[in-house]
Amino acid sequence: KLRIGLFGYGCVGQGLHDVLNASSGFRADIVKICVRDREKERRIPMSYFTFDKNDILDNESINLVVELIDDAEEAFNIVSAAVRKGKNVVTANKLMVANHFAELVEMQEKYGVSVLYEASAGASIPIIRNLEEYYDNELLHSVRGILNGTTNYILTRMYSEGLDYNEALNDAKAKGFAESDPRLDVEGYDAKYKICIITGHAYGLIINPQEVFNYGISSISQDDIRYAREKGLKIKLLSYAAKVNENTITSYVLPRFISTDKHLYYVDNEYNGIIAEAAFADKQFFSGKGAGGHPTGSAVLSDISANSFGYRYEYKKWAQGTITNYTRDHKLEIYLRYSDAKDLELFHFDSISEDFKSLDYKYVIGIINLEQLYSLRDRLSGMDIFIAGTGRKIQ
Ligand code: HSE
Asked: Which residues does 245 contact at the CB level (< 8 Å), separation at least 6?
């Protein structure tokens, strides 16, 4: 019988509780819930709660730790302590998994326990288990998609209702989609952590997230949306990972124009969508809710259930070790809206194919190396610009 010690009782923790209560076929007891805030009103009796993590970690009758807190470093401390005590773990913490990926893989091996984290990427979409089990021998050309619900929700509402950016963001916060620090969503960090986790399972390569370029939607304007609409396109925040040669992949997060012939065009609101492109299976498309207490709680429950059957990730591609390198030497075609010509100069485009200037709206379309974008990453947020990939293949 599963006896669960739960860390965190926020949006996902409560979502899990609901999902667990509603599932008739599966029995697991939440024995204790460890939370930080002593003052907060809880919707279940206080006897469930503790403020001392050792009440769970030292409790030998608890055989599964479910970690759903906000603070990634504290989450890692809790997960490490649980693993050392031989407890299996389920977590939804993408920042923690992405930043401590190699340690988590090694710890599981060393202590013979299982750490599952399906909810950490794509929330309700079972992408990690699919990559582990279904694509374990498949040659994946690329895995790409919309991995952040908050930004997709904002972009959808701006596009279809003309809503103001801040209004849309506030709505995403109210619905429980956004991170407690929403900069993680709107600046593309959350989407980056998720693609790093996916890359670990799709290619067996563990990449330090700091090496991966991310740019979000916080400086998007109605001009950019109008440009997209006039061309029959939508803008989506895309996470991208792809093979560039035998043993090397590239990866980045960048808004992208999407045309109506693409599945992702129709992935709206808090939904996520992922395309896996494989050598033989060709394109496959996964879609589902990418944020929110119940969809995320459902993925956590699925991990809890998998855990009860002894499931663990085998990291087969990691063990194979075919992909050994990550590169940013990769050319992209981008749209750059700018206002100051000095900013434009910093980009050093390889070539420019379109150059539009009116009094209050200027953009160029051109080819640039990802390495160049990465080298500018700390300056981009201070510029009055917006960048989006066109998605066109570079010959
Ligand atoms: N803030 C995240 C998102 C939550 O919007 O996708 C789910 O990981």
From this structure: none
CA 56 – CA 63 distance, rounded (Å): 10
The answer to whether 172 and 288 are in contact (CB under 8 A) is no
The pTM of this model reads 0.97
- 158: closest CA among 269, 266, 262? 269
- The answer to whether 124 touches 290, Cβ cutoff 8 Å, is yes
Which pLDDT value is given to residue 342?
97
Q: What is the pLDDT of residue 382?
A: 93
Quote the percentage of the chain above a pLDDT of 90.
95
The count of C-alpha atoms lying within 13 angstroms of the C-alpha of 267, restricted to the half-sphere facing its C-beta, is 29
Looking at residue 139, what is its pLDDT? 82
Q: pLDDT grade, residue 116 (50/70/90)?
A: very high
Q: Is the CB of 347 under 6 A from ligand 1?
A: no
What's the gap in Å between 179 CA and the centre of ligand 1? Answer: 6
Ligand 1 near 295 CB (within 6 A): no
